[in-house]
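Notes from hallway chat w/ T.B., transcribed later so I don't forget. T.B. wanted the structure written out for a chain they're using in a teaching module, and asked if we could keep both sequence and structure tokens in one place. Agreed to drop them here.
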Amino acid sequence: MQTTRHPDLEIYLKNCSSSQILDWLQEQCTTLAVLKETPSYLELELQFEVGLVQASLQHKVSGKAWSSLWLKNNHTPWDTDLDCALIASQQLQTQIRCIKTSWVDDDMDSEEDQWWKIEDGERELISWKG
């Protein structure tokens, strides 16, 4: 299992409203600011103990049920997408998906379609065209 800290984090949350996700984020960070908001997109600035993070939350990606939370730089308490997804799934009590490994521009092998599906405390690798 990869333990290298990812440069950014992205998780996909199933059937969560902006307010649910923002409430969860507020519990994880010291401050949260919404910089821009449209009905389906929010730009965020999050202050964690380890640093400032620019983030975006976009709804109705990969079907109407999914929202994408992208933490654009990893000054968070989580090393990997999976670390973040495990906490989010547990605390929001919803299914979360994230890529198996960190995105690499020149790595176009079969691992790019492997995703973690986290739900009810269980995780499994699936093939998903996120």
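Follow-up for T.B.: Residues 81-92 form the longest helix (12 residues). Might be a good example for the class.
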